[in-house]
Design brief:
4-stranded mixed sheet; 12 strands
């Protein structure tokens, strides 16, 4: 059946093609015009229409005669297109997952390269300063002499770090090496006003005896982190928490949460200082009061800004 259809279409095309050519030639000779076109262009359009007519008849016959063609044209192709669209949608999460995986691999490679570099430096000598370590902290307040103040900070940091790295050498100028753009950026930001904290950090591991140290700055706004008398964190103790072991665990957890909270606020202090024998104070309070619930609070004893120590006490009260 298929071979007969193919032969028929070839014969049909062969019959209609000369007819279209002849029709186009006659229209051209008759100088017939459509839509005010030139006769030659009119003949070309007629020839094109005839060719399109051949294609239309061919497709129509295929649809009419061939069940397989109708199946592929009206069922299989839309189904395949729908399947392709669904596959593309399903592929999107996989592509995102692949990108995340590639990013993780790149980060791990960077960490590995950094570790290799650190190991090499450790093998070469005694590392006295680690990469990213804060070497010097200073407070800067905007004023007309800001550049002079910054110069004094750079010199103080220079002398301080030199004593760590080369304690036996004296008088080395420009021991700390900065990028000029870093210094310009600090001067530009601090000159606009406000109160700032400058952290000077090591850009690489430094061995004892090195003649210079590469550094970079980190500029933070010197803002109020906690106020005196502020309750930073609190927790409720129930009867089951009143034994010594549970109270200790609760206090440690509360202080850890307090440290995390002040870091989120912008504090650069790594530890919290506590005042008073609060363990004894809490235990004495529990002996006197036999309530079922108590409120345990971490209270700030002073105003503390970004780089200032956080000093707290723990208070317990019955509910």
């Amino acid at each position: 059946m298929a071979w007969i259809l193919i032969v028929f279409l070839i014969l049909l095309g062969g019959l209609i093609a000369p007819f279209g050519d002849m029709l186009g030639t006659k229209i051209g000779k008759a100088r017939f015009s459509i839509l005010k076109l030139r006769p030659k262009k009119t003949a070309t359009i007629v020839t094109i229409i005839t060719g399109s007519f051949i294609s239309a008849i061919s497709i129509g016959l295929l649809i009419l005669v061939s069940e397989e063609f109708r199946q592929r044209l009206f069922v299989d192709i839309p189904f395949l297109q729908k399947t392709l669209d669904e596959s593309k949608k399903a592929l999107l999460p996989l592509q995102e997952e692949r990108k995340k995986l590639e990013d993780k691999i790149n980060n791990k490679e960077k960490e590995l390269n950094k570790l290799k570099s650190d190991v090499k430096e450790f093998r070469r000598g005694n590392v006295v300063i680690k990469r990213g370590q804060t070497l010097f902290i200073a407070n800067v307040t905007a004023n007309p002499n800001i550049k002079l103040d910054l110069g004094e900070i750079y010199n103080s940091a220079d002398r301080y770090v030199q004593k760590i790295v080369t304690p036996n050498k004296k008088g080395i100028k420009s021991f700390l090496l900065w990028r000029p753009t870093d210094i310009s950026e600090i001067e530009g930001v601090t000159s606009k006003g406000g109160n700032w904290i400058i952290l000077i950090k090591a850009a690489t591991n430094v061995l004892k005896g090195d003649n210079f140290v590469f550094v970079y700055p980190e500029l933070l706004q010197n803002k109020m982190i906690v106020s005196r008398g502020e309750v930073i964190m609190s927790d409720i103790l129930t009867k089951k928490d009143l034994d010594y072991k549970n109270i200790n665990t609760t206090i440690k957890t509360l202080l850890r949460k307090t440290r995390d909270k002040i870091k989120l606020r912008g504090s650069i202090v790594s530890e919290i200082s506590t005042r008073g024998n609060f363990i004894k104070k809490i235990r004495d309070s529990l002996k006197i009061n036999q309530n079922n619930k108590y409120l345990l609070e971490v209270v700030s004893l002073k105003d503390s800004k970004t780089a200032e120590p956080i000093i707290v006490e723990l208070n317990i009260s019955k509910l």
